[in-house]
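Table S2 (continued). Query chain:
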Amino acid sequence: MNLKKFFSKNPNCAIAFSGGVDSSYLLYEAIRYGKKIKAYLIKTPFQPQFEIEDAIQTAKLLGADLQIVEYDILKNKKVCRNHSDRCYDCKKTLFSTIIKIAEKDGFDIILDGTNASDDASDRPGMKALAELNVYSPLRECGLSKKQIRRLSKKAGLLTYNKPAYACLATRITTGTSITKELLSVIEKSETFMMTLGFSDFRIRTMDQNAKIQLKKGQFQLFFKNKEAIFNELSNCFQNVLLDLNPR
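Corresponding output:
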């Protein structure tokens, strides 16, 4: 099975679109080989604004039919409790929302960008997708993350080298309640560090503390800007820590 064959069999599809490497490549190929394709970008407090803006820009460049769906995931108490099954509950809720909207638009096939490199045993969200009968063509076609990046570059997609980005909820220690205020603090802190030139990093929260996780090549940049980082993040956290183990 390859994507051309998949879309020849399934020409009318709705795609859960995030603007990341995988869903962008899937949308590109869907538009290329499909007939009636629509992308749905679900906007929640778990996504920073720059991710939303990047996704909208990518969809525009692809000439995609995009619908933005706003959903307040914080209304889901099970998700906010942030237990070990949070990702499953979140994915089940959000995809159920997309499915309802897509069905009203005439789509009965929903796709997502899960790829062959994603480990199902470590992805509770994939269980939710299976229960909802969401198709993952990249995975079904055996395309790994590395292959998708290479194919994206060949296709001229600007997302080919985009760093992987997990939602803001992943920054919060399991068992710690997720609140709008805490998500806002994390987004503000990470946005500040981006202005200093950092990329593909994380700010994890532990109680009232922030733990910064960097790629190996960005420690020098951190020490160059140490004082500014501590001054900014100390407005939000009691302690600011640096994880000396590279991400």
